[in-house]
Structure formats: C-alpha cells, structure tokens
Amino acid sequence: NAGVMQNPRHLVRRRGQEARLRCSPMKGHSHVYWYRQLPEEGLKFMVYLQKENIIDESGMPKERFSAEFPKEGPSILRIQQVVRGDSAAYFCASSPGQASSYEQYFGPGTRLTVT
Amino acid sequence: QQQVKQSPQSLIVQKGGISIINCAYENTAFDYFPWYQQFPGKGPALLIAIRPDVSEKKEGRFTISFNKSAKQFSLHIMDSQPGDSATYFCAASMLGFNKFYFGSGTKLNVKP
Which of A42, A55, A91 is closest, CB to CB, to B104? Predict the structure, then answer.
C-alpha cells in the first residue's frame, strides 16, 4: 500500500521562474493538505483541498501561490515568479476524509531551492 | 499568534533515559493532539495521538500525558535509544477544521 507520493523530491528554480509541486494521496484518500516548513521550524498549514474543491486556503500567500486537486491526477501546488523566500520544504498530507478521522499521513516532501 | 508552543527546542538524553517534550495550547476547541517524528530529509510520521477525553495514552515506549485544565500535553519516550534521535513535533487540530497547528519542534539526540 503506497503512501503519499510527492514529486519532485528536490527542485531548483531561479528567481522569477515557476515551481510546480505534485502530490498523489494515499489510495482511498480524498483529502489533501499542503504545509510549508522553513529550515529549523515547524510545519505551517497552507491549503486544504478535496477533489475539485478548495476547502480552506487561509494559510496560502495571497499572491503567486495556487493549488488544485483535479478530478483525475495529483494535487498541484503552483508557485509563480518564485523568490528566495520561497525556499523551503513543502509537504503534502492526505486523509480519508471521514468526519471521524483526524489522521493525516505525510509524504516525503519537495525541497525547493530558489537561486 | 502561535497556537501551539513546544519546548525544549533541543534535548540530549543518554541511552536508556527518559525523553520528555512539552507542548501547550491556547484554543480550548482543539480536540486532537498528535505527535509526529521526523528524520532528516523525510516527511513527518505519525507517532501517537490523544483525544482530550483521556489523560494518558501509551504505545510501546511512547506515552502522551494530557492535562486539559492546564492546556498542556507531553510526550515521554521511555528507554530512549539512539534510533529515536529525530525531530519531534506536537500538533493540535479540531474536528471539522482539519488543518493541524504544529509546534516548532524538538530536536532529540540520544547519546549511546
């Protein structure tokens, strides 16, 4: 039973380029969460999605960042015109989505470096 | 505003000793408190979690103690091993809101 998959694992972008991070949830999971982790810090919530819906994007920067979880395919976190401050580890988590389930399972992360 | 405060930032324990990490929260609506373990270059892995209707939960060498009135909870690692050396994060969530609020992490180093 494969866990949460993320790719790429490492991504290097120059300032001004676009970064696309992909997340495939665990089999049977319909809810996806994105978190950002700066060096030596805890994880900060960014966005919560269900298939074709953004449920909570209260942690997303207002500009340059967007997320989607289409009916088919992985969830995508997109960062346009990246800046040095976007350098971080981005983690995706998934959950079954049942009302009684709190558990979130994390992927290995994508480490974005902006040069 | 930091919803969950974690201490200490780092911890050194001898092999066989007890590691204790503490967290405090503000929002009384939180009703789920997990602990995650993270190794360098890896994603966080769920270690153990507790709901506020119990004061303690034990799984193997790992125990969560929960004090609802003080709004505090802690992770105890008994008989700490070098393989436990990792960063530990506490978190809190509430039903219906789904997102986790994470503490800032504790880097544990267990000396052989």
Answer: A42
